C-alpha cells in the first residue's frame, strides 16, 4: 500500500510540470499553424496564377518544372494541413528541412 501511495504522489508531482510544458507548446502552436497556413495559401495562389498564365499563353513547361511545382505544392500545402490537424507533431522542423531542400 505504501508503494502505491508513493507512485501516486510521484505522478501528482510530475503532472504539473507536464501540464506547464503542454501549455508552453500550445501557446505557440496557433501562431505557427496560421503562418504555415498563410504561406500555403500564398503558394497555392502563386502556383494557380502561374499555371493559368502558362495555359493561357501556350507556354510549355518541361518535366522538371512540373516536378518542382508539384514538390512546392506538397511542401507548402500538405505539411501545414498535417500540422494544423496535429498529425505530425514535428511539422515545423520537417517544413524547414523541406523548404531548405526545395530552395537549394
TrEMBL record:
Keyword Membrane assigned: yes
Sorted UniProt keywords: Membrane, Transmembrane, Transmembrane helix
Name of the featured protein: Uncharacterized protein
Species of provenance: marine sediment metagenome
Residue ranges of the TM segments: 31-53, 59-79
Amino acid at each position: 500500500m505504501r508503494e502505491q501511495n508513493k507512485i501516486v504522489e510521484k505522478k501528482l508531482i510530475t503532472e504539473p510540470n507536464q501540464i506547464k510544458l503542454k501549455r508552453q507548446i500550445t501557446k505557440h502552436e496557433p501562431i505557427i499553424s496560421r503562418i504555415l497556413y498563410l504561406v500555403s495559401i500564398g503558394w497555392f495562389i502563386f502556383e494557380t496564377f502561374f499555371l493559368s498564365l502558362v495555359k493561357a499563353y501556350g507556354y510549355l513547361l518541361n518535366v522538371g518544372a512540373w516536378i518542382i511545382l508539384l514538390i512546392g505544392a506538397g511542401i507548402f500545402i500538405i505539411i501545414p494541413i498535417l500540422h494544423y490537424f496535429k498529425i505530425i507533431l514535428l511539422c515545423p522542423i520537417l517544413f524547414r528541412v523541406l523548404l531548405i531542400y526545395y530552395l537549394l
